[in-house]
Amino acid sequence: METSIQIEVRSTEIDVLGHVNNAKYLEYLEWGREDWYNRIGLPFEAFSEMGVGTVTVNININYRKEARLGEKLTIRTRPLRKGKSSFVLEQIIDNERGERVADAQVTSVTIDLKERKSVPLPPELGKWFE
Predict the structure, then answer these.
(1) Is 35 a known active-site residue?
(2) Domain with 36 in it: what CATH number?
(3) Catalytic residue among 15, 35, 103, 112
(4) Which helix (H) or strand (E) covers residue 89, if one does?
(5) N or C end of the chain: which has fewer CB within 10 A?
(6) Rounded to two decimals, what is the model's pTM?
C-alpha cells in the first residue's frame, strides 16, 4: 500500500543557500512514515500494545533537486521488502511540478520494548510486504 502526504516548505526549513536544509528531508520522511503506519492501522499505540517498537537503523537518501520556500512537496511511502526482523520502506519526495526532489530507502527493525532487542516482524506489519 502506497500513501502520500503533502507539505509546504516553511521559512524555518530553509538554510543559508535559500533551499531546504538537508536534515529537514529526514523529518519530511519521518512524517511520511508516520502517516503510512497510521493508514495501515498500526499507529504507535498499536505497536505499544503488542510490546513492540520500530527503530530506524539506516536511511539511504539521494538528494535530486533543491526545494525552496513555499513549494508544495508530496512525500510518497510504500513497502519495499522485509526480512526476519527488519523491513525497508521506499520514500519519494516530488515537487508540485512532478520533479523528483529526493528519494530514500529506510530500513527499520522491530524490537521488544522491554528487552530492547530485535524481534520478528509482527504479522500485522509483515502482511503489508507480501
Answers:
(1) no
(2) 3.10.129.10
(3) 15
(4) strand 86-95
(5) C
(6) 0.94
